[in-house]
């Protein structure tokens, strides 16, 4: 691929297929070595041979298996590398670079445009997050208000239920009726007592007027003791 049109095209777009392949191969080798190191450590723990001669023998066996696997992996990676260079990163025949503007500048412009779009999306995301927090606070406030309203409604229902169970309205109506009847009875009683008192006073006056051996001269001929008795009786009847 070196010195070919494909290398020139990828280089113009600031791409390096060879570097990509080398990074993949290095990553595979690192994973392979870490796997065998872990296998050896766990083997020593399971067999309880850490720091013994058997641990050295185990290491030799693991290294032998590692080399065998590494050889197979290297062969596979070599085939994969050739396939990538000859198939995946091979520019088709007849391909030509655009002559209007340098590809490198186009990539830079696209990167700048993507960065601007990314910044815009970040700002929008931050704004949406802020609005979401505000809506969440409003929702929590509404939930608290709704809960308080439900509690008030429940308390009112209990009061109404208690009021209905006690029959307060019926008892109040009964109390009003009883009070009216009591008032009417008291008025009748007072009227009757007033009438009786007037009759009693009139009788005493007549009696006083008729006092004195059939003499009809009235209060003029009444004795002082009779007048005093009349006044005392009159005061007691008030």
TrEMBL record:
The keyword Cell division applies. Residues 197-221 are annotated as: Disordered. One of its GO terms (cellular component) is nucleus. GO terms for biological process: cell division; kinetochore assembly; mitotic sister chromatid segregation. Pfam families: Mis12. InterPro entries: Centromere_Mis12 (IPR008685). Belongs to the mis12 family. This is Protein MIS12 homolog. It comes from Cuscuta campestris.
């Amino acid at each position: 691929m070196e010195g070919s049109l494909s290398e020139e095209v990828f280089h113009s777009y600031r791409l390096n297929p060879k570097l990509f392949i080398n990074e993949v191969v290095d990553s595979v080798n690192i994973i392979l070595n870490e796997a065998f190191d872990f296998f050896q450590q766990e083997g020593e723990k399971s067999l309880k041979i850490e720091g013994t001669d058997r641990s050295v023998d185990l290491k030799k066996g693991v290294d032998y298996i590692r080399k065998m696997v590494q050889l197979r992996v290297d062969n596979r990676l070599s085939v994969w590398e050739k396939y990538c260079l000859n198939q995946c990163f091979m520019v088709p025949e007849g391909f030509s670079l655009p002559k209007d503007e340098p590809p490198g500048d186009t990539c830079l412009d696209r990167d700048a445009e993507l960065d601007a779009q990314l910044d815009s999306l970040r700002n929008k995301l931050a704004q949406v997050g802020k609005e979401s927090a505000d809506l969440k606070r409003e929702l929590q406030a509404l939930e608290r208000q709704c809960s308080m309203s439900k509690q008030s409604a429940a308390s009112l229902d209990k009061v109404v239920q208690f009021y209905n169970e006690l029959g307060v309205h019926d008892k109040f109506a009964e109390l009003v009726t009883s009070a009216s009847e009591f008032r009417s009875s008291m008025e009748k009683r007072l009227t009757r007592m007033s009438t009786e008192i007037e009759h009693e006073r009139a009788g005493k006056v007549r009696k006083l007027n008729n006092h004195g051996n059939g003499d009809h001269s009235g209060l003029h001929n009444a004795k002082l003791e009779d007048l005093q008795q009349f006044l005392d009786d009159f005061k007691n009847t008030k």
